[in-house]
Amino acid sequence: MPSDKPYTRLSAVLAIVIAAVCLCGASAAAQQESVLYSFPIGNGGSLEPLSGVALHGGDVYGAAGNSIFELRPLGGGVSQEKVIYFVAPVGDGMAQGTPIFDAAGNLYSVSNGKLSGVFELTPDPGGGWTAATLFDFGSGLQPDSPVAGVVLDGAGNLYGTTALGGAYGFGSPSGTVFELMPQAGGGWNDKLLHSFGYGTDGNQPNAAVIFDSAGNLYGTTTGGGAYAQGIAFELMPQANGGWKEKILHSFGNGSDGQKPYSSLVLDAAGNLYGTTQQGGTYGLGTVFELTPQAGGTWMGKLLHSFGDGDDGQRPYAGLIFDTAGNLYGAAEVGGTYSGGVAFELTPQENGTWTETILHNFGSGTDAKWPMGTLTFDASGNLYGTTLQGGTWGYGAVYEIMP
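^ that's the sequence the OP posted. Answer follows.
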């Protein structure tokens, strides 16, 4: 088993649409999960999704196998899948990262493998999509292996991470943060913002970066740092056009979390939240908070350790907020049926956080092993994907309804 917010403004939008969903205590137990779509083998490339989904125009979009798919609701909890783009022939590339949309309805995502790059899908008047490759990842100082999707800034520039490559060796377990800039005459220019892997810097970022309102980027790496268990970092734009990295936290000290695979999420006060796949009290992953301190330092706080009893284990996905300040996420495995859980964390007056399990995955033909970050719709329903499970066992798209 393998061990994803585009723009900070997007998180605010997602939070606003769920103002009515302030779940806590017993009310959170009354959740109903349904499998919207089960991926069958041999359906043209869509199976075993690793990322979350995007909601656009009433439909659900995601990346699975070597394709970008669209789900259209047919009523009665039934959805119809349509593959809208094959990123590469089977075995030559995988579609990865939660797709994102710009204001014009164009979709952006990445592919990883032998044919890796960033691509754009533009909707056609007749209902189809026109694909354009914005950047192919090459050799030398170019980034390599994008795995987490891209994010947009207000000027239409795209930002992303690669797990390999950079200034310290093509194909090396170092990784980069990059920017793609649209040009007036067409085409896109690329810029390497940061290469990981030197000294106690992090390496191998596997999550998308996020923005704050000042234009700074935040992210995580799964390796490197003072304890070789990953870092949380900030990249700050400089007057000369460069970017300066600041390590906010090195994971792996004592019972701290280890190996964050998820993107970070910001609250209104500027605190950062995320998950780790390992570490914590039981060694099976954590939810953490990073709080900025006077003088420019950051303080880490362990909000939840996974693995106690029927709790979930090893969260791969990131977190999202509702307007009441509750956090929602998914843990890949564990739970009553060992198929993972969807959970809510509610802040308490004494500073602690209380976990509520919203759904235990893995029973019968239910979805199994949730990997992608959850998404809210305007009615407060949660959407996500699982790596396996469903009718045929090759993954599913699910919905959790309050």
